[in-house]
Amino acid sequence: MAARAEMSYPSGRVPRMVIEWGDLEHAYGKALDTPELLRQAASPDEEVAEAAVSELYGSIFHQGTVYPATVAAVPVLAGLARTAPHGRAGLVWMLGQLADPQHAYGRSFPAVRAAVAAQAPELQALLDDDQAGVREAAAYAVARAAPDAAVLWQRWHGEGQAPVRASLALALGVADPAGAGPVLAEAVLRDAPPVRVAAAMALLRAGREWPAGAVDAIVTALDDGAELEYCWAHSPDWTDELLPGAPDPLALLDRWLRATRPATRGTALWAASQWCDESRSAPVRVVPLVAAAMQDPDPSVREKAVVALAHLGAAAQPYADDLAQLAADYPAVADATAYTVQYHAVGALARLGDPRWVEPVCVAAAAGHRGFRLLDGARRTPAALAAVRAWLAAEPQRADVLAAVLGEWCAEQAVPELIAALPHAGPPVAAALVRLGHDLPEAEPILRDQASNGDTAAALAVWRLTGDSAPVLQALDRGGHRYGGSMAFVGQLGEALRPLLPAAREQLTGEAAPIFPHREIQILSARVVAAFDGVPAVLPTVRAVLSEGDTPARAAADLIADLAVDARADLPVDAGVDVGGAAGAVLGGAVVGGAAGAVVGGDGWSQLAGCVPLLRERLGDRWCRVAAARALARLGVPVDELTEPLVEGVTDYAGRFGLAAIRELRATATIPHLRELLATDRRLQASSDADRLVWSDERLQQQIRETINELTAIP
Fold this sequence. Notes:
Oligomer: single chain
Strand content: under 5%
Shape: globular
Helix content: 55-70%
């Protein structure tokens, strides 16, 4: 297809336009397919039109990201919204979303939003369209693109369709929040159910109070099935915003949980759980109401109440007996393909540190059932540790489910029980012992087997036990770049690495590979080559990967940090460190890194120090800023200068690296900022598991407290 396309349609439906689509990009590269998709969106064949619009969503509006091609498509979409034979309402909703920062983002968003705003006359005209669905969407698009209170009020006074009035209520809340307040308050109490919930949400977003009687009116509307249209929502589920924003959230939740329909009560439990995912103070407030719902007359509501309670963190402690009663029945349902209330109860007990999870888990395991991620985040308490050790001593074969927990807990006290269990559950026991720092000679055959399957930690244990580096080399060759621990050991293998050297050198092209896994292999190869050829041979490729950012740049920064340790050791004795003022860190020969740079000496060191500007650029990259800060500190940049990225990095990677780096660098200047993280009511997003946000945040808070205590103790 030619890069230049003339946009025209039968019957003059869309204005004739000439667009150089080949010069524009969308999610999949050059936008050469976009003009044909736009033509198909005007097709009289409904299926063809729907398929074309779906393809457009995937290319010019890919998962919310907008592109230069999106800007060019907007006028055409606006024309289609007025004249297409099919799907006009959907096109109007799409135009509104393109101008809505809740739904659209990317570098091209300002230009896209401006392009939609330029279509304001077309969108405003659609407020008088014959189709109610188009009018409903037009109210949203007008509010997002170019709010005009006058045209919205005109439509409000003449509109009789409830869905359209609901959209208009939300639009008026955007365009005229002060003037619309009294009208919206009246609508909450008197209008049709969809309008009541929309008006209530509009008042919340405008920062205005609900009228007396609003709670009953809203819950009654919810019972009637009222909901917000997806595009108007600020989160995947619109009710996520309703409860925390309410003037009296507990009054709303209490009434919501007494709604007539079980489905409505279930939605209330979901909303309560979502509120707790956002607010640290919410669980202790909502838990009594959630726990009471475990006695609901409807079994589906009771189940949802248990699931909600199990996700609310330490606030569920007063109801541990209820959870334990449910958990006792876990063995009977452990073979279920779906998550059961018993599964959730066991998991909650484990995360509470209540030892009553141990028996049902072990009984289920004896029958061959192991719950997927059931014990993730299990909390170590004296009672829980004692229960695990006692069960392991009595039934060592249950190390199949208990060993990993002991490894996670770093439970050195349980090493005797683990050693005794090695003949009964070799692989999990061997892995736990390695994690605890015990390379057991009796475990060597098991460790070799695990190493043969790419387990780098097991391969390292074999090397430490026997001096045999072959399993490590095999693990590296099979993807050691995916090893979760420090890769600094590579340089310690010495001559054993030589067989990998030719292939490793081939990876060092001086350019970053096109895809992330290959870049990570490049950095692993750089570690191998650096052990023989030194820093100059690897630095061009390392710098290239670092420049591209994202997760491979973390591996590159880690390598620079590790190489800096060796290079610094090679500096002359008189190349000391003198950190102070604007001069930054002084380490001996050439100035790097600007006003706060490092003065260094030594060939390898000076070349590594040349990476300081690149590393500073990466401090804004959430995927690698902690590693970049660590590397900068190793290169002599004062740690106090790195406070901001270190603190911002506390929640990166679900909290895996930030606090460890802060402790390693003895970054005492972070203490006030860490205390601020504890003081906020907003949850820290320290988990990729949406079901365990509360537990993960509470665990991270504890780790922050421990870090503060450790830093405070530094002289």
